[in-house]
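Session log. Operator J.P. requested a structure for one protein chain; no other inputs attached. Running the standard single-chain path with token output.
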Amino acid sequence: MNSKNDYALITGASLGIGREIARELSRRNINTLLVALEAPELYELKQEISDSYNTKVDAIGVDLTDANAAQVVFDWCNDKNYNISILINNAGFGDGGRFEDIPLERYFKMIDLNNKAYIAMIHKFLPKLKNQGYGHIMNTSSMEAYIPLPYKAVYTGTKNFVYAYSLSLNEEVRHHGVKVSILCPGPVLTNEGGLKRIQSQGGKANLIVMMPDKVAKIAVKNMLKGMMVINPGKMNWWIIKLVKFIPTRVKMAILEKMFRVYK
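Structure written below.
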């Protein structure tokens, strides 16, 4: 952050990891812009940050799956003279079940939010980041970018896209002073639905599940250091390393048995 008018913009900021990232940035005296669906939680967080930290904060409610959403956010920042030095693409959702049982429209919505919104936001803000010669972009992927999960095929695919896209983009922009980080958390307890999914996996899930505030602290710390790939949790890191040595056919058969509960 090189200016008092510099801001970190966080999508999906009203809940889960996004909310905790906004709080962690505020603790570090970094101004924040909160982007999420129009809902009370968004403005409650804005008020909390305004009351609790000596930083600037603002919020805008927008559906990032709308085709013009990135333009709306970009114009809002320009109109208010907010200079973005950190862009955090965190908004997203997943679903599990047999592929054909989930409506096609829900898959398309997932791709719109988990992938297209990331591309649109970066496409709007990257030229300014490059021109000013400094900045960070952090895209939220998942541990599932490394471990394709049966019964979560489309979600896994969207997270694998974020991983590959972010690695590639980083090589394009790092010589301009802009660093791209990829956040790859394992299971994170963010809502009631997440709790049920974790419980369906039994006791083994407790070994890798993390709370969003811990993930946020690790994410922000390592993003500001310029780390390219951020894998929160030592157990998750070891799992990622170990699965690389398992033959693909064997690995996928094991995963199918583990995640059959989604059927």
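Operator note: Strands lie at 6-11, 32-36, 57-61, 83-89, 135-140, 178-183, 229-230.
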